[in-house]
Specification:
Shape: elongated
Oligomer: single chain
Distance between the termini: 54 Å
Number of helices: 13
Mean pLDDT: 89
Radius of gyration: 32 Å
Low-confidence stretches: none
Structural class: alpha/beta
Amino acid sequence: MLQSIDLRKLKAFVTVAREGNVTRAAEQLHVTQPAVTLQLKRLAADTGLTLFRRTSTGLELTQEGALLAAKAEQVLTALTDFGQTAGHLATRVRGKLRIGTIIDPEFTRLGAFLKALIESGPGIETTLRHGMSGDVPEGLRRNELDAGFYLGDPRDYDPSAEITGESAAPLFHARELAQLTYRVVAPPSLAGLVRGADWSQLASLPWIGTPQASVHNRLLSRLFTDLDVRQNIVAQVDQETSMVAMVRTGVGLSLCRESIALHEQQAHGLVIAENVKISTTLSFLCLEARIGDPSIMAAFDAIRRVWI
């Protein structure tokens, strides 16, 4: 009865089975030809089976040999997987990661990101904190977050951006993920005033505003300030879904992502101001000073793989 199998015998057996030649197998294993031949003889003796038959071109597996070769391949593959898993567990990143999330998880690919993060850093415990875009850089500055998604220009929250000169180091490290286009949507009752209007003309119409931490607020405040006009805000909400719902009920205009605007136009008859649009960037942020932290490096690696 077979008691044990030396892995060297299995490696020699599998390599000869692949190559069909002892000489080539010995070269791959970096051993001598007699050493390979000896391992094959010992394995044949251990199993009590004839594993190969000689042909004019080399060695050919017998039927029993072919069945055992397939099993030997599985054993060696499992051994390799075992070693890789053990090595990964020994060196895996551990720690807690507080991640700021914004808008809808489908758009930020949040699920795929977390899956990739678990795969690359199974020792990392994640906590998600959902809010508005401006909450993320503020959370990073106050050490309430370790990383997070952000819409807009990170320099809006970076005091060093106001310092001129080469010595001013950026506060945030950002990886840009996607460009977004925002459109203005309006209820059908305002269609006649919205169609063909420019930003200055739209400013005087009733608007649904957002808090300062919202990217909508930052984008529109800068735009209307540059035009030296005042935005007529009649209501304020902090969720994009609530903004669109208020547009449907006829309260006023709102800024929203182009994909949502087009859906609302088709599904609910909302009007899109065709002459205006505004773009911004979706990024993933951390403090520049912490980019070398292992858990944050793992997060950025996961982001890179999801947002290739």
